[in-house]
Amino acid sequence: MQGLQRRLAEFAASREWQPYHTPKNLAAALSVEAAELLEIFQWLTPEEADRVMEDPGTAHRVADEVADVLAYLLQFCTVLGVDPLVALAAKIDRNELRFPVGRPPGRSARAARQPDRHSTE
Question: How much is the pTM?
Answer without folding.
Answer: 0.81
